[in-house]
UniProtKB/TrEMBL annotation, chain A:
Transmembrane annotation, as ranges: 24-45, 51-70, 82-100, 125-142, 154-173, 193-209, 230-248, 254-270, 277-297, 353-374, 395-422, 428-447
Origin organism lineage: Bacteria, Bacillati, Actinomycetota, Actinomycetes, Kitasatosporales
Residues covered by region (Disordered): 454-474
Keywords per UniProt: Cell shape, Membrane, Transmembrane, Transmembrane helix
GO BP: cell division; regulation of cell shape
Localization per record: Membrane
Name under which the protein is recorded: FtsW/RodA/SpoVE family cell cycle protein
GO molecular function: lipid-linked peptidoglycan transporter activity
Repressor keyword on record: no
From TrEMBL, chain B:
GO terms for biological process, alphabetical: cell wall organization; peptidoglycan biosynthetic process; regulation of cell shape
Major location (coarse): membrane
Cellular compartments annotated: Cell inner membrane
GO cellular component, as recorded: plasma membrane
Name of the protein described by the UniProt record: Peptidoglycan D,D-transpeptidase PbpA
Residue stretches making up the Penicillin-binding protein transpeptidase domain: 156-479
Bilayer disposition of the protein: Single-pass type II membrane protein
Length: 474, 486
C-alpha cells in the first residue's frame, strides 16, 4: 500500500514538468507576431518600415524576457500559456494603437477638440512597462495567494472605496458622460479596473467562510433551495453597490461585471443553482428598474436596438452604427492593417472601440483569432481554478477568470452590437494605463495560483494523516 | 467545487461562442449590407480616393478632379463651365451625393463597375492604382453654348436633338448652378448648397428634363399630326369647316383666338401659320380624346424618358370632356410638356415620322480609353407616316417663312417651327411662357430639332411671345449645329 501511494505522489512530482521552455518558445512568437504587424502597418500607411521598429521590438522582447525570467525563477510551475497570451495581446494592442495614432482623421479630431494631438502609443508602451513591473512585483512578492485571504474585509472596504472614488467631487472626472475616472497628479486612473481584482479577494475570502451556511441552511421552495433571509444580506449589498455604480457613474459595464462575478463565485462556492436564478432575477430587476428612468441607459439601449434609426441625432447611435459598419466593411479577410477606415468612429477609437479596428482591418478571420486568444486565457484561468488545491484559490481564480470573460463579452458584444454598449475596455488591447496594469496584475495572480496548483506536492510526510489528505486530492 | 467550476467554464465558453456567432453574422452574413450602407462614409471615401473619370463633350472633358487637403476625401470633383453643363453632368458632391450622369454612371467614373472587374483585378495584382473610366456624351459644345448664352439671365430651358438618332445635342436650363461650388465637404460647400437649394428660382432643377410647362400653341403641331394621321384632314391646303366664333361643345363659351386673325374655315396650313385656337380646338374635339391621346402617347407623352437621366413624364390628360379635349389640343387645360418632350415631337416630324429614343451617353470608356459600351440609336415609335410628316414640315416651314416664326429664319437653311405663348396661373394671371420649337433641314436631312421655353418674369407681358423671346435662341442653337456639320 505504501509503495503505491508513494508512487502516485512521485508521479505527480515528476509528471508535472515546469513547461518553462514551452513558455519561452511561445513568447518568441508573441513578440515576433506584433513586430511583423508593426512592419505591416508601417508599410501600408507610409510605404516604409517604421523607424521605431527596433526600439519597439527590443522593448517588447525585453518586457517579455523579464516576465519570463521572473516566472522561471519565482513561479516555475506556473501555467505556460498565460504569459505569452498576455504578451501577444498587449503587443498587438500597441500596434493597433500606433496604427490609430497615424490616422490623420483622429489627429484632426484631437486638434479640433483639445488644440493638440499627442500620440498614444508611447504612453501605452510606458504603461505596458509599468504593468510588467507590477506583474513582476506581484509574482515576486506574492509568495502564496492564500496570504490575501487575511485581507478579506479590508479588500471589501478597499473595493467599495475604489468604486466610489470617481464620485468624490474634485477627484472624479466626467468623460463623455461616464464618471469612471479620477484625476490624480495629472494622471487619469480608472479605479474600477483595480476594484475588479480587489473585490475578487473579498468575495473569495467571504464565500470560503460562509459557503456552508449559504449552501445548506435553506428551505426548499418550488424545486429551488431558497437561502435564509439573513444570508441574502451580502448579495443584496453587492446588488445595491452595483446599482449605485450604474446610477451615479453611468457605468453599465462595471456594475454588470461585479454583480456577474459575485453570482459566479457564489454559485461555485455553494453549488446551488438557486443563487443563479436569484442573481439573474435581481440583475434583470435592477436593469429594468434603472433603464425605466435613467436616460443614458435608455439611450444606450435604443442605440443597440437600431443604431441607424437614430444615427443623426444621437452620439450613442452613431458610435454603434460606425462600429458595426466598421466590422461589416472588414468582411471576412479585412482590409489589412493600416488600410481601413475604423478611425471614422472618432473619439475612443483606440480605447473602447479598438476592437472595431481589429474587425475592419483583420476581418472576421482576425476577430475569431482574437476571440480564441481570449478564450485560451479564460480556459487557462478555469483550468487553474480546477487545479487549485484550496477553496480560496479556486474561488479567487474562477472569480478573476469569470470577470475577465464577462469583460471580454461585454466589450466585444457591445462594439459588435450584440448587447448594449457599456463603457469598458478590451483587456490588453485598449489604450489606458489602468486597464493594462490591472489586467497584468490579474494574469500575475493567475500565474501565482497556477504555480501553487501545479507545484509538486511536498514530499509525503511520514504522518498517516498527511497521506490521507494526499489521496483525496483531486 | 469542481462541478460548478466546470459549468462556469462551459458558460464562459458559451459567451465566447456567442461572440463568434455575432462576428460571423455582421462580418459575413450582413457584411455587404453594412459595407454599402447609406450611412457608411467609406463608400464616398472610396469614391473620391482616386481621380474620378471624366465626362466628355466633343472629345474634351468638361469635368476634372483635384487633390484636396484636410478632409477624408483625397480628390474633389471640378467642373469646367459648370453652370452651362450642370443640366448634363449633374453633380458629384462629397457632401450631398451625386445626381444625373455623375450618379447613374458612377460605377464607370469611379472604376467600380462590374464590367471593369477584370481590369481591376489585374491592376490589383500589378499594384496599379484603381482608375475611373470616362463617359462620352452626345452633346455639342457650340449648341450648348448657344442655348445657354441665348437664355442668358432669363429663366428657361432648351433641349436639342439630332432627329435621325435621338442624340441630345444641347440641354440647357437657367438659372443654373456651378456644381463645383459644393463638390467638397467643408462648411462652405454646405452653405453654398443650401443657398442654391433655398433659392426661389430653383437653380438646382433641371428644367429641360424635370419641369413640365403648358406647351401652349406649340402643341398644335401635335394636334395637326393627329388630324392627318386619323384622316380628319388630308389636304393641308383645303378649307376646314370651322365657324368663327366657335362655341366649345357642351358649353356656351366661344374659344377665343389671340387677336383678330383670319381663322374662319382656315386651311390647316394657315391655321398653323397664324396659330388659330378655333381650328385646332375643333380638330381636338372632333377627333375625341382617345385619338388625341393615342397620338400624344406615340410622341412620348405620359411616359418618363431615360436619357439615361430621367425626365419627368409629360402629360396629356386621360379623362376629359369634349371642351376640355379642345383646350388640351391647343396646349392648355392639363396638358404639360417638358422641353425635351417638345423637342422629341419636333424631331419626329423632322425625321419623316420616326421618333428616335433620346439619349445623351454615346460611349462608356474604360480607364485605358477602351470602349466598354457604345449606345446604338433606337427607334422609339412612328407617330406619323412619312407622307404626313412631310406635310407637317411644309406647314412648319410656312410658319417660319410667312408666319409667327420669322425670327428663326436662317439664310440658306430650311427651317420649320412653331411658336407658343402659354398662359398659366389662375385666370391666366401669371406671366405666360414663351415657347418655340423648330428644326433645321439641309440637303442631308435634318441635323437638329430644338425646343425652347422661356419663363420670363421681368419682361412686359405684351413682349412675351414665342416668336420674340424663344425663336432667336432656337435659331442660334440650330445655326451652331448646322455650322458644325459644314
Amino acid at each position: 500500500m505504501s509503495s503505491s501511494t508513494t508512487q502516485t505522489s512521485t508521479i505527480g512530482a515528476i509528471g508535472a514538468p515546469s513547461r518553462r521552455n514551452t513558455e519561452l518558445a511561445l513568447l518568441v512568437f508573441a513578440v515576433v507576431i506584433p513586430v511583423f504587424a508593426y512592419v505591416n502597418v508601417g508599410l501600408a500607411i507610409n510605404d516604409e518600415i517604421p523607424t521605431g521598429l527596433i526600439g519597439y521590438g527590443i522593448g517588447l522582447g525585453l518586457l517579455a524576457g523579464v516576465g519570463h525570467i521572473v516566472v522561471r525563477r519565482f513561479a516555475p510551475y506556473a501555467d505556460p500559456l498565460l504569459l505569452p497570451l498576455a504578451t501577444l495581446l498587449n503587443g498587438l494592442g500597441l500596434v493597433l494603437i500606433w496604427r490609430l495614432d497615424q490616422s490623420e482623421r483622429l489627429q484632426q479630431l484631437s486638434m479640433k477638440a483639445y488644440g493638440t494631438f499627442s500620440p498614444s502609443a508611447p504612453s501605452q508602451l510606458m504603461y505596458s512597462a509599468i504593468a510588467i513591473a507590477f506583474f513582476v512585483a506581484v509574482v515576486i512578492f506574492l509568495k502564496d495567494h492564500r496570504i490575501l485571504q487575511r485581507y478579506t474585509y479590508i479588500s471589501m472596504v478597499g473595493a467599495i472605496i475604489l468604486l466610489l472614488l470617481p464620485l468624490v467631487p474634485g477627484l472624479g472626472a466626467d468623460v463623455f458622460g461616464a464618471k469612471i475616472w479620477i484625476n490624480v497628479g495629472g494622471f487619469s486612473i480608472q479605479p474600477g479596473e483595480f476594484a475588479k481584482i480587489v473585490i475578487a479577494i473579498f468575495f473569495a475570502g467571504y464565500l470560503m467562510v460562509k459557503r456552508d451556511a449559504l449552501a445548506l441552511a435553506s428551505r426548499r421552495f418550488m424545486g429551488l433551495y431558497l437561502p435564509r433571509g439573513r444570508d441574502l444580506g451580502p448579495i443584496l449589498m453587492i446588488w445595491a453597490v452595483s446599482l449605485l455604480v450604474l446610477i451615479f457613474e453611468n457605468d453599465l459595464g462595471t456594475s454588470l461585471l461585479f454583480f456577474g462575478m459575485f453570482v459566479i463565485m457564489l454559485y461555485v462556492a455553494t453549488e446551488r443553482t438557486s443563487w443563479i436564478v436569484i442573481g439573474l432575477g435581481m440583475a434583470a430587476a435592477g436593469a429594468v428598474g434603472v433603464a425605466s428612468f435613467a436616460s443614458h441607459v435608455q439611450a444606450r439601449v435604443n442605440a443597440w436596438l437600431d443604431p441607424f434609426s437614430c444615427y443623426a441625432d444621437s452620439g450613442a447611435c452613431e458610435q454603434i452604427g460606425q462600429s458595426v459598419m466598421s466590422f461589416g466593411s472588414g468582411g471576412v479577410l479585412g482590409t489589412g492593417l493600416g488600410q481601413g477606415d475604423s478611425d471614422l468612429i472618432g473619439f475612443a477609437a483606440n480605447s473602447d472601440f479598438i476592437f472595431s479596428t481589429v474587425g475592419e482591418e483583420l476581418g472576421l478571420a482576425g476577430v475569431m483569432a482574437f476571440f480564441l486568444l481570449y478564450a485560451l486565457i479564460i480556459e487557462r484561468g478555469a483550468r487553474t481554478a480546477l487545479a487549485a488545491r484550496d477553496p480560496f484559490g479556486k474561488l479567487f481564480a474562477i472569480g478573476l477568470t469569470g470577470a475577465f470573460a464577462l469583460q471580454v463579452f461585454v466589450v466585444a458584444g457591445g462594439v459588435m452590437g450584440l448587447i448594449p454598449l457599456t463603457g469598458m475596455t478590451m483587456p490588453f488591447l485598449a489604450y489606458g494605463g489602468s486597464s493594462v496594469l490591472a489586467n497584468w496584475a490579474l494574469v500575475a495572480i493567475l500565474i501565482r495560483i497556477s504555480d501553487t496548483a501545479r507545484r509538486p506536492a511536498p514530499a509525503p510526510a511520514p504522518s498517516p494523516d498527511a497521506e490521507m489528505t494526499q489521496v483525496v486530492r483531486p | 467545487m469542481n462541478k460548478p467550476l466546470r459549468r462556469i467554464a462551459i458558460f464562459c465558453g458559451l459567451l465566447v461562442l456567442a461572440l463568434l456567432v455575432r462576428a460571423n453574422w455582421i462580418q459575413y452574413v450582413k457584411a455587404d449590407d453594412l459595407a454599402t450602407h447609406e450611412k457608411n462614409r467609406r463608400v464616398s471615401i472610396e469614391r473620391y480616393a482616386q481621380p474620378r473619370g471624366d465626362i466628355i463633350v466633343d472629345g474634351k472633358s468638361i469635368t476634372g478632379s483635384k487633390a484636396t487637403e484636410g478632409t477624408d476625401y483625397e480628390y474633389k470633383r471640378t467642373y469646367k463651365n459648370g453652370e452651362m453643363w450642370a443640366p448634363v453632368t449633374g453633380y458629384a458632391s462629397q457632401l450631398v451625393g451625386a445626381s444625373q450622369i455623375e450618379n447613374l454612371e458612377d460605377g464607370i467614373l469611379t472604376g467600380n463597375d462590374d464590367r471593369l472587374f477584370f481590369r481591376r483585378t489585374l491592376d490589383m495584382l500589378t499594384g496599379k492604382k484603381k482608375e475611373g473610366g470616362n463617359v462620352v456624351t452626345t452633346l455639342s459644345e457650340s449648341a450648348q453654348k448657344a442655348a445657354f448664352e441665348g437664355l442668358g439671365d432669363r429663366k428657361g430651358a432648351v433641349a436639342a436633338l439630332d432627329p435621325s438618332t435621338g442624340a441630345i445635342l444641347a440641354l440647357a436650363s437657367t438659372p443654373s448652378y456651378d456644381p463645383g461650388v459644393f463638390a467638397g465637404i467643408t462648411n462652405k460647400d454646405g452653405e453654398e448648397f443650401s443657398k442654391l437649394d433655398k433659392n426661389k428660382d430653383k437653380p438646382l432643377v433641371n428644367r429641360a428634363l424635370r419641369e413640365t410647362y403648358p406647351p401652349g400653341s406649340t402643341f398644335k403641331v401635335l394636334t395637326a399630326a393627329a388630324a392627318l394621321e386619323h384622316g380628319l384632314v388630308t389636304d393641308i391646303d383645303a378649307k376646314t369647316d370651322t365657324p368663327l366664333p366657335w362655341i366649345m361643345p357642351g358649353t356656351t363659351t366661344p374659344l377665343p383666338n389671340e387677336g383678330n386673325i383670319p381663322c374662319k374655315d382656315a386651311t390647316l396650313r394657315d391655321a398653323l401659320r397664324v396659330s388659330c385656337n378655333t381650328v385646332f380646338g375643333k380638330i381636338g374635339a372632333d377627333l375625341g380624346k382617345d385619338k388625341m391621346l393615342e397620338t400624344a402617347e406615340k410622341f412620348g407623352f405620359n411616359e418618363e424618358q431615360f436619357t439615361p437621366v430621367r425626365s419627368n413624364a409629360s402629360v396629356f390628360p386621360k379623362e376629359m370632356d369634349k371642351s376640355q379635349t379642345a383646350l388640351s389640343s391647343i396646349g392648355q387645360f392639363d396638358t404639360a410638356a417638358t422641353p425635351l418632350q417638345m423637342a422629341m415631337v419636333t424631331s419626329a416630324i423632322a425625321n419623316d415620322g420616326v421618333l428616335m429614343e433620346p439619349y445623351m451617353v454615346s460611349q462608356l470608356q474604360a480607364p485605358g480609353l477602351d470602349t466598354i459600351e457604345t449606345h446604338e440609336p433606337k427607334k422609339m415609335s412612328e407617330p406619323l407616316s412619312k407622307e404626313n410628316a412631310q406635310k407637317l414640315q411644309q406647314m412648319m416651314e410656312t410658319v417660319v417663312n410667312d408666319g409667327t416664326g420669322s425670327n428663326a429664319r436662317i439664310p440658306g437653311v430650311t427651317v420649320g417651327g412653331k411658336t407658343g405663348t402659354a398662359q398659366h396661373g389662375v385666370d391666366n394671371s401669371e406671366k405666360p411662357y414663351a415657347w418655340f420649337i423648330s428644326y433645321a433641314k439641309t440637303a442631308e436631312g435634318s441635323p437638329v430639332a430644338v425646343a425652347v421655353v422661356v419663363e420670363d418674369g421681368s419682361a412686359d407681358r405684351q413682349d412675351i411671345s414665342g416668336g420674340g423671346l424663344a425663336a432667336p435662341i432656337a435659331k442660334s442653337v440650330m445655326e451652331a449645329v448646322v455650322n458644325n456639320k459644314k
